[in-house]
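Homework help board

Subject: predicted structure for assignment chain

Our instructor gave us this sequence and asked us to write out the predicted structure in token form, then describe one feature. I got the tokens but I'm not sure how to describe them. Can anyone check?
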Amino acid sequence: MLESALTPRLRVQLGVIAAAGIKIPDGARILDLGCGEGNTVRALRAAGFDAWGCDVALRDTDGARELSAHGIIKEIRMQPYRLPFDDGEFDFVLSNEVLEHVMNYEDFIAENRRVQKIGGTSLHIFPGPWTPIEMHTFVPLAAIHRSFPWLWAWAIVGVRNEFQRGLAAREVARRNFNYLRSETNYVLTRDVRRMFGRKFAKVEFREDLFLKVSTSGRAKLVNGILSLFPFLMPVYRNFHNRVLIARA
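My token output:
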């Protein structure tokens, strides 16, 4: 593996897998589930992995078009929901900030398991259901409290994301209301565990490993606090970041 080719995010993702005691062989076949324009796939390939990607809608960029033309990244079929790969193709399935957009969890998990090899591993990193600031709208508690009056109140005081600057408060609230209901799904952690547990032999949340391998000062501080007070880990998991490892 050519580690210098990896992005900081990939170093953390692969670091979590390695810290869990799972060997990552050179040339492993890896799926980036929710690949966007394919930057992660490109970095994995440069590092020596047999990497592929898929998404519900590929980005309209030169890089994405090039990878798509070679069949390296592909669109996911939605009706019926199916990942565009054969059974048991991948040693590892990775996603980052994807599961909060999955509206059909049961189908997603079934397809994740179908394309993963026996003995393979999935790693999904995604926000907790009670995150204080919803990461797409920037509205406090909007992951769970998404009524129109709540969204309108925050729009009135000036809360906007980068695409909403200059819009009237009511229009911002309307867009956030529609987006949160049609594009986000903050499933409770216990329900995520239960649904993955139906398809995978071993399911665990390992935020401790994520914090251990992360190099940011904030992660080191949080890791130090949680090392002293491990009973607070569910607070971190539900209010900030979830790190799920599922093994077939």
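Reply (TA_rk): Your tokens look well-formed. For the description, you could write something like this. The chain has two domains: 3-128+186-247, 132-184. That's the kind of observation they're looking for.
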